[in-house]
Design brief:
The structure is a homodimer of 356-residue chains. With 356 residues, chain A is of the alpha/beta class. Chain A has 2 domains: 1-102 and 270-356, Isopropylmalate Dehydrogenase, CATH 3.40.718; 104-263, 3-Layer(aba) Sandwich (Isopropylmalate Dehydrogenase), CATH 3.40.718. Chain A contains 12 helices and 14 strands. The first copy, chain A, has helices at 15-32, 45-52, 58-65, 89-99, 123-126, 166-181, 197-210, 223-232, 244-258, 296-309, 313-329, 346-355, and strands at residues 4-11, 37-41, 69-74, 104-110, 130-136, 148-152, 155-165, 186-191, 217-222, 239-242, 265-269, 275-279, 331-332, 342-343. In chain A, the strands form 3 sheets. Chain A has a 10-stranded mixed sheet, sandwiched between helices. In chain A, helix 1 crosses helix 10. The longest helix of chain A is centred in the first third of the chain and has 18 residues, at 15-32. The first copy, chain A, is globular and about 60 Å long. The structure holds 3-isopropylmalic acid (2 copies). Chains A, B: One of its GO terms (molecular function) is 3-isopropylmalate dehydrogenase activity. Chains A, B: Residues 5-353 form the Isopropylmalate dehydrogenase-like domain. Chains A, B: It comes from Auxenochlorella protothecoides (Green microalga). Chains A, B: Homodimer.
Chain lengths: 356, 356
C-alpha cells in the first residue's frame, strides 16, 4: 500500500526533541503493521520567522495542503514575544488552522489514574474524569472582522469582533453531536447567551441541530458556570462544544485539572482536507534543548493522527499501548515525576517506547 | 450624625431571605457603633419584571443614584430564562452597573481555613490562597457596539464587539495598582494579546499606567494560561486585573477554588457615585424560600459596603467578626455543611450572627 504522506512541523522550543521521538516511534509502529510514511518537514512559528521572515511560509502551507495529515509539535517562545503581531509564531499557527479550514478542535481531557496524584484536585473529585472539548477553531473573535485600532471621542480604542454564522455553528455542532454519540451521549454547549448576541445565535443553532440527534442529551451552560463546574465536578461532563475563545480557556482549564498536561493530544479536523494533530501543551522554551521534555503527548497526537487522519487504527493502538506500557513500567519524565518512579529524559523515554 | 442612605435590592431567588438577615445584622452592628441607616427597598431582576415589565425600572435607578450605597442580593431564575433579552433579569443587572458607572468590580477569593475541605482542591494547594480579581465591569464585549444580528453571504450571523478605549483601561488599571499596594504589591494583568487587538491596547495601557506605580510588580498573562495557573498554583497570585468577560470567567473559577462560594462578597465601585455591593453567588432558585440559603456572603457584602462605600470601618469590623464567630462556634448552612458541625437554616444563621 502507498505511503501515508505526513507533513511534520517541529516548530519551536521543545518541538524538535519531541518530534524526533514521535517520528521514530511512529515509524516502528507502522513497520509492525506494514504501514509506511513519508515525512515532509516544514517550518512554522518562530523557527519559520527566523529562517524566512514569515511564521507560516507559503511553502509550509503547500506542503500541508498536499499531505494526508499534519503533525505539529509546538510554537512560540520569549524570543519572538515582542515582534509585531503579523510576525509572531502564534499568528503562524492561526493561519495554519485557518488555511486548512481545520474548524473542529477535539481536546480530550482524561485522567490517567497512575498520574492523578500530580493534579491539584483531590483524587476523589478526579476519579473517572473523561471529557472531550470540541472547540470551534477557525471562527469567532479569533478571526472576526472588523478588528484593529481606531479613535473614539478623541482617544485610541482597540477592538475585536466575535461573530458566528449559522453554517459555522452548524458544522461544529454536527461534529460535537457525532462525537457525543461515540461517548456517553451527553453534550453540553457552553456560551454566554445571557449577554452576547453571538452566543444567542450559537445557542439557537446548536439547539436546532440537536433535533437531528434525539439520542444525544443536549444542555446549555454559561461559560462562567462551566469554569466553576469543571472544578467542582468535572465528572459531570462528557462532551462539551463551544466557541474558539471559550474553548481556548476551558480546554486549558480542563487539561490542567487532569494533572498531566504533558500527556494530552489534540486533533483539529477539517471536512475536506488534512487535519492537524498536536499536543495540548506549549513549546516550553525554559526547558528546550535540555532533553527534559515529555514526548508522550506528541506520541499520542501521532496516535490520534493515525486513527482519525490516516485511517490506520492498528498503528494508533500500538502507539497508545506503548505509552501505557512505559507508564506501567514506572519511568517518568520530569513533569510527571513521582516518588518511587524513575525520572528519565526525552530521548530515554523514546528508547523505552521503542522497546515497548 | 446623619443616617447612611442604602438602597436595598433583594432581587430574586434566595435574595429576599439573605437580605432580611443582612439588614438585621447590619442594623444591630450599626447601633453598637452609633451609626444609623435608612433602607430604601427597590425592585430589580425578575421581581422587577414581574411587577413592572422592566428588569431595571427607572424608579430603581433613581433610588440607587440618590443613595450612599447599593446593597444587592442576587437576580435571575429559570422562570425568566426564555424572555426576550431586554426583559431578562441579567439585563437589569447590566443596566444597573452601567447606569451607576460602577466600572471596578473587586472580587476577593480568600480561602477560609475552616472551610477549605469543601474545595475540590487539595488542602496543600489551597493553603494561604488570598487573591483579589479586579474586573472591568461596564465596558468590553458586554457593552461594545456594534452588536446584534445580521446577514452575511445570505445567512444569519450574530456578533458582539469587544472594545476598550485608553481611558477605560486607565481607570481600571489605577484601581488595580492601588489595590495591589494595599496587598503584596504584585499585579497580574490578564489578556489575550497574542490574538486580540482589544487585548493589545489593554496591555499597552496597563503597562503605561504601571510606570506610575514602580513599587508594584506588574506581569502579564494570557487568559488561557491564567485559567490553568489558578488551578495549578493559586497561591502564586495576589492581585489580578482583567476585562469584563475574562473577569467573569476567572473570578467564578477562583471563587469555586476556595470551596466556599457562599462566603464571597464583591464590590463594584464608581469614581463619582454609589457603589454596588453583592455576593458572588447567584440567586439559587432551586433552594429559594426553603430557609436553606447561606446569608454569610451577603453579610460580608454589607461589611464591604460599610468599609468602602460608607466609610464606617468599625461597623464592617463588627460584621466580619460576627461571621468569624459563628463559623468558629461550629454552625454551618447546608452549602458548607461539614461532618461534626451543626447544619442550620438561613434564619437560624441570622440569629446566631445577632448573638455574636
Ligand atoms: C497560541 C495561541 C494562539 C493558541 C490559541 O489561543 O488558540 C493556543 O493557546 C491554543 O489553544 O492552541
Ligand atoms: C448574570 C450575569 C450577566 C453576570 C455577568 O456575566 O457579569 C454574572 O455572571 C456576574 O458575574 O455578575
Amino acid at each position: 500500500c502507498a505511503a501515508h504522506r505526513v507533513t511534520v512541523l517541529p516548530g519551536d522550543g521543545i518541538g524538535p526533541e519531541i518530534t524526533a521521538v514521535a517520528l521514530s516511534v511512529l515509524e516502528a509502529a507502522g513497520q509492525a503493521e506494514g504501514e509506511t510514511f513519508t515525512f515532509t518537514e516544514a517550518l512554522i512559528g518562530g523557527a519559520a520567522y527566523d529562517a524566512t521572515g514569515d511564521p507560516y511560509p507559503d511553502a509550509t502551507y503547500r506542503a500541508c495542503a498536499d499531505s494526508d495529515a499534519v503533525l505539529l509539535a509546538a510554537i512560540g517562545g520569549y524570543k519572538w514575544d515582542s515582534l509585531p503581531s503579523a510576525s509572531k509564531p502564534e499568528t503562524g499557527l492561526l493561519r495554519l488552522r485557518s488555511s486548512l479550514n481545520a474548524f473542529a478542535n477535539l481536546r480530550p481531557a482524561k485522567v490517567i489514574p497512575d498520574l492523578a496524584d500530580a493534579s491539584s484536585l483531590k483524587r476523589e473529585v478526579l476519579e473517572g474524569v473523561d471529557l472531550l472539548i470540541v472547540r470551534e477553531l477557525v471562527g469567532g473573535i479569533y478571526f472576526g472582522q472588523p478588528r484593529g485600532f481606531g479613535e473614539r471621542d478623541g482617544e485610541k480604542v482597540g477592538f475585536s469582533t466575535d461573530i458566528y454564522s449559522e453554517s459555522e455553528v452548524e458544522r461544529i455542532a454536527h461534529v460535537a453531536f457525532k462525537a457525543a454519540r461515540t461517548r456517553s451521549r451527553r453534550l453540553t454547549s457552553v456560551d454566554k447567551a445571557n449577554v452576547l448576541e453571538v452566543s444567542q445565535l450559537w445557542r439557537e443553532v446548536v439547539t436546532r441541530v440537536g433535533a437531528e440527534y434525539p439520542d444525544v442529551e443536549l444542555s446549555h451552560m454559561y461559560v462562567d458556570n462551566a469554569a466553576m463546574q469543571l472544578i467542582r465536578n468535572p465528572r459531570s461532563f462528557d462532551t462539551l462544544v463551544t466557541s474558539n475563545l471559550f474553548g481556548d480557556i476551558l480546554s486549558d482549564e480542563a487539561a490542567m485539572l487532569t494533572g498531566s498536561l504533558g500527556m494530552l493530544p489534540s486533533a483539529s479536523i477539517s471536512n475536506d482536507g488534512p487535519g492537524v494533530f498536536e499536543p495540548v501543551h506549549g513549546s516550553a522554551p525554559d526547558i528546550a534543548g535540555q532533553d527534559k521534555a515529555n514526548p508522550l503527548a506528541m506520541v499520542l497526537s501521532a496516535a490520534l493522527m493515525c486513527r482519525h487522519g490516516l485511517g490506520i487504527p492498528a498503528v494508533a493502538g500500538r502507539l497508545e499501548a506503548a505509552v501505557a506500557a512505559v507508564l506501567a513500567s514506572g519511568v517518568r519524565t520530569g513533569d510527571i515525576a513521582q516518588p518511587g518512579k524513575q525520572t528519565i529524559g526525552c530521548k530515554a523515554m523514546g528508547r523505552a517506547l521503542l522497546e515497548a
